Model the fold of this input.
Amino acid sequence: MDVDVKKIIECVGGKSNIVSHTHCMTRLRFILADKSLVQDDDVKKIKGVINSLYAGDQYQIVIGPNAQEVYNNLVKELQNDTAASDLMQQENNVKENSLFDFAGYHFICFHANFRAFGRFWNFERPCFITNGYRRIG
Done:
């Protein structure tokens, strides 16, 4: 199925509104500079688009199993305008190099592991004590 990527770009506010983009098995995922520029009803009317929705900061367009092909066409279309590509690369570099993102990611990982260990220790501690693994006194 041929999906009009030019129409998708137009409906999400143009190339300059797309901060970053990616995809998964069935969806195109966008981080947009201004969500108010999105013409959601028009996106849903594009041939080949199943649905569209917001999930957190992402605007997602459900395409179906051929999302990879549509994404490749989208990237080609976005790269036709080198100014937009340069701007996207600059935005990505700022985001990747942000200390806050780095620290936030590592805090989340630490917190998840700490909680998992706490659950294990609270469950196993009585077994250690009653089976002689822990000496008292």
In short: DSSP finds five helices and four strands in the chain. The CA atoms of residues 78 and 85 lie 7 Å apart.
